Amino acid sequence: MIVLAIDTAGTGCHAALYDPDEDRILGAAGADIGRGHAERLMEFVDAAFDAAGLTFKDIGRIAVAIGPGSFTGIRVGVAAARGLALALGVPAVGVSTLSALAADHRATSPLLIAMDAKRGEVYWQRFAADGTALSAPTIAALEEARTLAAGHDGVIAGSASSLLRDGAQPGSDSVAIATVARLGAGLDPVDHPPKPLYLRGPDAKPQAGFAIKRA
């Protein structure tokens, strides 16, 4: 089973082909583009296929990063994963950015993954040293998150690490596309559907008082 992995949840836009039997990335492409994921994603997917020497017919599963992260980027990646899965008749799974960061930062002690959600808020989740989730993904006000972090006896990783622990170096929310692929290869599609993980409501809200009366 070859896995096509996609990550557009942050400023990066990445795709990779992964063989779980050999635990090997066969081909990958991508860049930190900031914006324009919709315009560039399929270009990187095609480049990953070219590097691997494979075609869409070789794909047995699709894994996609579902956030938290950029609203627009997440939508682009999830829509692409769902569309390709439907067209190819293969399952698609969603991989949370928090769990991927935990996998990238495995240590010998418990992990607190903390992403800077801006606006004085933090996305966070606790993990065991082996990457097993110990809590649900959550968004919290910065002061509340600092209180939670004060009682955490272990590693804090992610872009909000320096906000939660004095003296800590700012971390990164960049996830290795290989990690998205490896995690996605082992997830149950029923329990981990390719559904956006939005921990904050959308900024755009319907305007009140401007509805047009129907005749």
How would you explain this protein's 3D organization?
This protein is of the alpha/beta class and 215 residues long. The chain folds into two domains: 2-96 and 174-186, ATPase, nucleotide binding domain (Nucleotidyltransferase, domain 5, 2-Layer Sandwich), CATH 3.30.420.40; 98-164, 2-Layer Sandwich (Nucleotidyltransferase, domain 5), CATH 3.30.420.200. The protein is 30% helix and 26% strand. The chain is built from six helices and nine strands. The chain has helices at 37-52, 71-88, 97-104, 142-150, 161-164, 177-186, and strands at residues 2-7, 12-19, 24-32, 59-65, 92-95, 111-118, 121-127, 138-141, 155-157. Strands 3-2-1-4-5 form a five-stranded mixed β-sheet, sandwiched between helices. The protein is globular and about 50 Å long. The chain starts with a strand and ends in a 29-residue tail after the last helix. Mean pLDDT is 91; it is low at 204-208.
Shape category:
globular
How many helical stretches? 6
Quaternary: single chain
CATH topology of the largest domain: Nucleotidyltransferase, domain 5
The CATH superfamily title of the largest domain = ATPase, nucleotide binding domain
CATH architectural type of the largest domain? 2-Layer Sandwich
Our Rg estimate from Cα atoms comes to: 18 Å
Topology summary:
Layout: E1 2-7, E2 12-19, E3 24-32, H1 37-52, E4 59-65, H2 71-88, E5 92-95, H3 97-104, E6 111-118, E7 121-127, E8 138-141, H4 142-150, E9 155-157, H5 161-164, H6 177-186
Parallel strand pairs: 1-4, 4-5, 6-9
Antiparallel strand pairs: 1-2, 2-3, 6-7, 7-8
